[in-house]
Write a structure and sequence with these properties.
Elements (H helix, E strand, L loop, with lengths): L27 H26 L5 H23 L2 H27 L20 H19 L2
Length: about 150
């Protein structure tokens, strides 16, 4: 009896929801996904501590950090899920993220008294080596590139 070939196991990100954008599992895509994951954990941890222990000191700043954590988490999950719908959702969320960083960054420069404590997006993410302003731009470029490569 001849040996039958082993059944192929599906690659991560494929299946009924569609394929993950090409390259997301390696190279620059891995770095992008890793950074979004790190920022999700960092912003969420920071905001949970601040909201539960010092909310009255700077509620706006702490709520904005929580919002940033939610945006980062949504983008991370969308990148992991893959597929066209998830890519579109991640693209829209990266636009919201960039708008948030630019708005909060400008607001913190023009009216520092409104922010007695920093947010992730304060001063365009200066406290985080400006990664918060670079990340959505990189994400938008990556998602745009991945759309073109699958068209």
């Amino acid at each position: 009896m001849p040996d039958s070939p082993a059944p192929k196991t599906p690659e991560p990100g494929t299946g009924p929801r569609g394929a993950r954008p090409e390259g997301i599992g390696r190279g620059p895509g891995t770095l992008l996904l890793t950074l979004y994951g790190i920022f999700t954990v960092g912003a969420a941890s920071r905001s949970v501590v601040q909201l539960t222990t010092r909310f009255d000191e700077a509620p706006l700043a702490y709520l904005l950090s929580a919002l940033a954590a939610l945006v980062y988490a949504f983008i991370t999950v969308s990148l992991v899920r893959g597929g066209e719908r998830a890519r579109k959702a991640a693209f829209a969320c990266c636009c919201v993220e960039l708008l948030g960083v630019l708005t909060v960054g400008t607001w913190t420069l023009l009216e520092p008294s409104a922010f007695p404590d920093a947010t992730v997006w304060s001063d365009y993410g200066m406290g985080y080596l400006f990664i918060p302003v670079i990340l959505p731009v990189t994400g938008l470029l990556w998602l745009r590139r991945s759309r073109r490569s699958h068209s």
